Amino acid sequence: MTDNSHETLERIAQRVPVPEPAYDRFLRHRDRKERNRRLRAGALALAVIVVAAAIFIREYRSAPTPADHSIQPPPVQDVDEQPAQRSPIEGLEFPMLPVGAQPSTPITGDAVVEFSSWRQDGGSFVEMAIYADGRVIWHPNQNNVGFSQLRLTPAGVETIRSIIISTGLFNHDLNLRRPGSISRLTILRGGRSVFVQWANASWLEGHKDNPEATPSESRDLGEIERLLGDPSVWHLSSDLYADPTVRPFEPSGFMFQYDRNHWDPSQLPSHARDVLARYDPATSSCLIVTSDVALRIARVLARAGFAPLTNSPVSLDWKLPGISGGGPSNPHLSPVLPHDVGCERE
Questions:
Q1: What is the model's pTM?
Q2: Selecting from 3.30.1560.10, 3.10.25.10, 3.10.20.600, 1.10.260.40, what CATH number does the domain 105-248 have?
Q3: Are 321 and 264 in contact (CB under 8 A)?
Q4: What are the C-alpha distances in Å from 199 to residues 122, 215, 306?
């Protein structure tokens, strides 16, 4: 990598009541006066009856008088309407699924750079994509924040691409052994995608015979990780930004998938079993659901007593009973980015 490239990398590191018509008010006032007159007459008649009743009771007070208790039968509640026993976690909030959030537009896009990186211990992760229209969408290495976005000019997009390409490591597909996180980068070059992956050998199953990164290559890959890990700290010249303002990115849907094993429907309550059967990702290679459906899935599992293993602004996953002999099932939801195409949408 050239000295200029290193320098560049370091620089980048309701309602008001409507007045009633006068004639309507007059009619209502007239009716109220007539009603009051009738009530006064009725009250006088009632008073006469009460006096007569008092005399009658005094004359015959030795006779037993039954108590007048008004007994109201309890309301009849349909069996199907009986409230179900609440789960301790029912009503749990899901930061990834804010109610009423509007998707960022456009909802699709052509990625020219895709980068992801996560720690071997399964902790926080980085995901970033640069699009041909200049959008940069990313999630930094923080579990408590969602995706953000800003926009570059075409020259800004080409500047970042050039820095990556200048390392000489992205001329063809490559797997490199390197201690630390597992990282993957795909970059568009001349109409073709080049995929490079670097990680500890234990992560590279099927690629253990690939070369180990040299000290120089390892240093360059580390700089790439820092460069793409958080675009909010880039300090590009103003002409390379179409809009430098960092804004929240709201996905148009959520990927619903599962790992390890399929859940066992027979071990789920009926309400959870029915919802999961309707949106079972096993019916396709991947399934994108709307935010409403994602929230329905999360709520029905909470009602069934399944607390999420992860409940962050970018991830929701659960551990469910799996089909016999296959271990537990790990269904999960994650935000869809504009380049996540080719998946079936419910």
A1: 0.73
A2: 3.30.1560.10
A3: yes
A4: 14, 14, 33
